[in-house]
Amino acid sequence: MIKVAILGASGFVGAELLRLCAAHPLFDAVRLFGDSQAGMALADVHPHLALAYPAARVERFAPDALDGIDLVFAALPHGQSQAIAADILGRGVAFVDLGADFRLDDAAAYARWYKEEHKAPDLLGRFVYGIPELHRDAIRAAKAVAAAGCYPTTTILALKPLLPLIDPDTIAVSAASGVSGAGKALKEDTHFNTVDENFTAYGLLSHRHTAEMEMELGGKVLFTPHLAPMNRGILATCTAQAKGPCDPLAALAEAYAGEPFVHVSERSPSVKWTLGSNAIHITARYDERTGRILAIAALDNLVKGAAGQMVQCANLMLGIDEDAGLSNVGVWP
Amino acid sequence: MIKVAILGASGFVGAELLRLCAAHPLFDAVRLFGDSQAGMALADVHPHLALAYPAARVERFAPDALDGIDLVFAALPHGQSQAIAADILGRGVAFVDLGADFRLDDAAAYARWYKEEHKAPDLLGRFVYGIPELHRDAIRAAKAVAAAGCYPTTTILALKPLLPLIDPDTIAVSAASGVSGAGKALKEDTHFNTVDENFTAYGLLSHRHTAEMEMELGGKVLFTPHLAPMNRGILATCTAQAKGPCDPLAALAEAYAGEPFVHVSERSPSVKWTLGSNAIHITARYDERTGRILAIAALDNLVKGAAGQMVQCANLMLGIDEDAGLSNVGVWP
Amino acid sequence: MIKVAILGASGFVGAELLRLCAAHPLFDAVRLFGDSQAGMALADVHPHLALAYPAARVERFAPDALDGIDLVFAALPHGQSQAIAADILGRGVAFVDLGADFRLDDAAAYARWYKEEHKAPDLLGRFVYGIPELHRDAIRAAKAVAAAGCYPTTTILALKPLLPLIDPDTIAVSAASGVSGAGKALKEDTHFNTVDENFTAYGLLSHRHTAEMEMELGGKVLFTPHLAPMNRGILATCTAQAKGPCDPLAALAEAYAGEPFVHVSERSPSVKWTLGSNAIHITARYDERTGRILAIAALDNLVKGAAGQMVQCANLMLGIDEDAGLSNVGVWP
Amino acid sequence: MIKVAILGASGFVGAELLRLCAAHPLFDAVRLFGDSQAGMALADVHPHLALAYPAARVERFAPDALDGIDLVFAALPHGQSQAIAADILGRGVAFVDLGADFRLDDAAAYARWYKEEHKAPDLLGRFVYGIPELHRDAIRAAKAVAAAGCYPTTTILALKPLLPLIDPDTIAVSAASGVSGAGKALKEDTHFNTVDENFTAYGLLSHRHTAEMEMELGGKVLFTPHLAPMNRGILATCTAQAKGPCDPLAALAEAYAGEPFVHVSERSPSVKWTLGSNAIHITARYDERTGRILAIAALDNLVKGAAGQMVQCANLMLGIDEDAGLSNVGVWP
Fold first, then answer.
1. Which residues are in coiled coils (chains A, B, C, D) (predicted)?
2. Mutation to test the D interface, candidates B16, B40, B177, B192, most D Cβ within 10 Å
3. CATH topology of domain B2-147+304-317
4. Is C21 a catalytic residue?
5. What DSSP line would sit under D188-229, residue for residue?
6. What is the value of pTM for the model shown?
7. Mean pLDDT over residues A148-172, rounded?
């Protein structure tokens, strides 16, 4: 068994990592760190995990807590990974980080979008950007992976194979996310009565995930995220000016042939098809009337957009089956 | 009192018209037509109206049923108004139709988008397109109004004042609607288990409301509607290439100063602010980074996008207070 | 116009009072108090009210702030009314309080259920318990009313006419509420991701509203509230041992004949029929098999269960039409 | 591998069986029957299964279609199993039926609750009632199991260990179910706009699942089911007169010690903890004030209340690990 430590175990992604580890044939989640709930029984923090981890407790993180660990999953608030990455990298263990800290390869872009200087710019080059379908070989060879964000994963997988067909400076992405993307912190924006029966755009012109999209896609991306009244799921609706008549669906089908978690189809995808699974469903069209392409992708932001992608990356890093512990079937309905 | 007949009283818009008439100081809904439920007590069809209309019944429509009526509201399935419009127009009563039948001024555009020939093309010129904020004087003078569709109302009000600032051939609209927009008919797409916890795009490249948008906005509009898991509400997120640096929010504020139902604000609007009301909330931005404008509008599809707009138009046609029977306050939370 | 002050204007009930006052022919909400948001424009606190109250601001409460006020609505956190009631009563203005502070007529029952001594027990007798259908004459004659709680209103209206038919010591009430009943405060229990797609019981054996039910119904009530994933609405499902075969539906119909906001019907009521309205829908059955009665009632917890009932009581106190400013039609769907 | 046939593959339970089989180490779903969608690719009927079953098709059932099959799962509309049970039993294969057809051991009770004569009363004795926690040994020895209904599983598991403590003739059960319990058929009751933001009781005094509860619990059960606006989940809130002071939580903990899918805890259970899993969470209290017990249980109606329980039963019948293919961790949030 592979000994796994989870940093941020009391959050939504931490909980999801624990759910996936419970189904994984080789991952044994032996250390669960979460400062805000340290000392509590896991069953009290996450009752849905009570039967699977009857004796587990959440601990406060300490420097030597990773001794004997083979794999570190970090799902920490933005910025915290920068403080501990050097130590973890020094241990030589496999490290998959979900924060935004090490996703961008350019410290200047980080400072521009995150409004602060990067605290460990020399480590940026040590991390591979974690989208297995696009960087599989590099992930296999890496000791550290910065798993892609939920919106970027959806958008980049929908558009990257279409780059030869479009003008990347005309990309517009309108995406809707379930509320879990905002995390477990208590905010007026995530109060049930704010979100239920509501739909609203946020982060207008300024959402930080734009940086990842532009890093992978090139061009100027106008990204508008929305909050939808659902627990999970992201749907990204992407448009761009086409260079000419083209078949974007064929381009996607060719690019993702044989991928275990990517389903390309003419049918307009539903986020619900992916609930709890590591699948992403994608479609695309060329619009003769306007000369533009339309590409739409759907995934579960906590799985393919977070914990599942982390497990998929870790599987690759550790040389085990890429789909170990992961389902490609959504919980439906 | 003004004697009102409602065609389509057993549907969602019919029910909403009845709710609004119950609050209207002058409208008395005396004849309720609905073929599929004809003969039933209204309280059995719509229990939420039982206290307001304890004795009302739904009737089958017949040619002479409109004798003595002052105002006809029609909320019928697509195509049915074409068959009865000539008769209603011949009576000289005020007529507000919500169907798509008489919205477009061009029978060829109708045939192109609706995939069938228009059956009463000679009557198209008799109808004013029903968005009071844009065609108030014409509505005041009209005997017949074709109230705008829900998506077009949202999009057109968000973008029309910005036309001097943008290239209309680059407009892209990504909109989300509550499920009531699809009506009361039983379809797999509107089964609770299909929609709940889901988000999906539909009508890709081909939604008929595009025609209304292009009629009012000019240019080529790429419109992508989505179904969101909520009863009501439409949010339209619109982008277009700007001609240059500009202040779209100021343009909106100027255009709608003094409008009783339009609220322009820097804040990103929420559909929930409009629930049950005739209000529309709009914001806009100019994005220096990409040179594009972003405009976002929210309304209740069954009120400002349907029944409320019908009442607002009828108020104008009949020379009474434009806001009679209408609220500008959403039911929140 | 009647000058109205609202204490707790930034909360959910305060917002609902403002919505109802905007529709009321005589109520002018001129002073809005809310300490936590004092100084903010109302449009920033409650954007859904922006068009109706464009210039209003939320103020900090001060002793002399009620000068010139005719009617005080208080929707404050539990316990706060006890501190200010003497001053308000001294002014001789109409006062409708929604807190639990003055609902019970027995200070000992208050101490037992609320786990603290009452701070103004001598004022308890000055307040009439605010359910107009049961205490209309007393409310008309009162200067101070303690509007009933949301669960008690639902339960008491469903059961009080049935008391001659049942053994009150066998009453069991299982009720479900929308989340707005828990207020606007940020709590893990009201985070969207806690509530959405969830259903759970809370306050087992100990919910304080039991005290009001027992005060009005007599007997021993076992009350189990549940949280349902919806903004508003309460449904109370009540059972009790019958004294013998009986017709509880007829008893309800007789008791509420002519009531403007009570609808008695054989049909099982839906909370959605009442959304945004002051209506309550009730049904009942006698079960021959078990010898028990089943009574079910539905209302909107923020209207008939809070702000609407407050307005209804104030209308009675001030001698104006009981239904002024109130709708009996739910916003449906 | 065990060759599995699924009757009713195009319904909700059929889809869930396919999801569970995809995760099962030994079950190979090789024949999928569903008359209404016969001939369609499974990926078109259930897109969420497209990656797991890329080549599967739905077939029309025919007498010889079960040749070579080891295990039959039937999830058919009420009444259909009676017509085919004799043939399946004659084959000697393992048969798990989810319909109500063979759950009751008494044909008279069937006729009384289902309002029709049973068509194969002689086969009733061949089926074991499928709740593994209560009838494990009998299921192990059986060739045919009638898996318990969703409401009965929840209620019976909550109350059976408490029978020595209570008067069974005073049991009242108020339960709420997600909409998937009503199946995929298109009905006004399951239209999104009927259910969303709604809560309502149905089947008053007459829900057929009462029969199963009384069979297993004895006594007179007054059962009132409700529809809640969620996809899945059942919460049953059960009360009964206690014989005297008692500790029902201890009784439950003792009864279910070591059970892989039952979690007994003082905490009030949430249906969401069980989403997609085969877990059931239960709590109980004795109320000194009223002398009654309160027991509450939560599960996923499509898993522990349907497909998961079927798999659990089949695992026992086939002598493989009871939890093979089943998770005890809910998909949360």
1. none
2. B192
3. Rossmann fold (3.40.50)
4. no
5. GGGBHHHHTT--EE-STTT-THHHHHHHHH-S--EEEEEE-S
6. 0.97
7. 98
